[in-house]
């Protein structure tokens, strides 16, 4: 039995939620999102909470908690949104936004031009800080991971792109 899936999701009055033909959609102040829900579950929408209920005897279905978490992320996304911050560490490492492209200078012989997805906003307040915001948690994480993959942080000097809350385990160099 899933403990997470049994918990109801609290919603406020300014969110409009619907569940029609296996598609859950939520509309809030930041935008609108929808997702397909597994046919084994139904969504019960009340005035101030949402419950994910399995149809029949599917109490041990592992997708029950996952479905509840996805719906919770949609609710949080349309109300407050999600954000991630990346830091560039290294001599000459820079980032800048021009139009719908993120230009990264990461010590390679060429610059990297990253196409920004349509529902992710990227800001570069400083040259070494990239702030990503979105209402879709999945696309935000995938975009941040893609940007980080261009130059992962290395353990000896700590150079590379890292999350702001990430700790890089440093190694000691060679000894004579």
What is the CATH domain class of the largest domain? Answer: Alpha Beta
The amount of helix comes to: 10-25%
SSE class? alpha+beta
Question: Over all CA atoms, what is the radius of gyration?
Answer: 21 Å
Number of strands: 13
The termini sit apart by: 58 Å
Overall average pLDDT: 91
The count of helical stretches stands at: 3
Strand content: 35-45%
Query: Order of strands across the biggest sheet?
Result: 11-12-7-13
The string of secondary-structure elements, in order, is HEEEEEEHEEEEEEHE
CATH superfamily of the largest domain: Ribosomal protein L6
Number of domains: 2
Largest β-sheet summary = 4 strands, antiparallel
Give the low-confidence spans.
none
Enter the CATH topology name of the largest domain. Outer Surface Protein A, domain 3
CATH architecture of the largest domain: Alpha-Beta Complex
Tell me the overall shape: elongated
Structural notes for this entry:
The protein is of the alpha+beta class. It has helices at residues 3-6, 63-79, 137-149, and strands at residues 9-10, 16-20, 23-27, 32-36, 41-45, 49-54, 82-89, 94-98, 101-105, 112-115, 120-126, 129-134, 160-163. The chain folds into 2 domains: 3-79, Alpha-Beta Complex (Outer Surface Protein A, domain 3); 82-163, Ribosomal protein L6 (Outer Surface Protein A, domain 3, Alpha-Beta Complex), CATH 3.90.930. It has 3 helices and 13 strands; from the N terminus they run αββββββαββββββαβ. A 4-stranded antiparallel sheet has the order 11-12-7-13, with helices on one face. Strands 1-6-5 form a 3-stranded antiparallel sheet, covered by helices on one side. Strands 2-3-4 form a 3-stranded antiparallel sheet, covered by helices on one side. It is elongated and about 65 Å long. It starts with a helix and ends in a 13-residue tail after the last strand. The model has no long low-confidence stretch (mean pLDDT 91).
């Amino acid at each position: 039995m899933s403990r997470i899936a049994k918990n109801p999701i609290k919603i406020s009055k300014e969110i409009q939620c619907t569940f029609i033909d296996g598609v859950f959609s939520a509309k809030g102040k930041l935008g609108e999102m929808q997702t397909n829900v597994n046919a084994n579950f139904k969504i019960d929408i009340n005035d101030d909470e949402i419950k994910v209920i399995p149809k029949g005897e599917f109490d041990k279905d592992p997708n029950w908690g996952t479905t509840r978490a996805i719906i919770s992320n949609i609710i949080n996304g349309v109300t407050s949104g999600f954000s991630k911050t990346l830091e560039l560490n290294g001599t000459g490492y820079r980032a800048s936004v021009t139009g719908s492209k993120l230009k990264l200078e990461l010590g390679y012989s060429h610059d990297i031009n990253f196409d920004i997805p349509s529902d992710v906003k990227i800001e570069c307040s400083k040259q070494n800080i990239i702030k990503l915001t979105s209402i879709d948690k999945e696309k935000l994480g995938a975009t941040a991971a893609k940007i980080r993959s261009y130059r992962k942080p290395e353990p000896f000097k700590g150079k590379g792109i890292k999350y702001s809350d990430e700790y890089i385990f440093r190694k000691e160099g060679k000894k004579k």
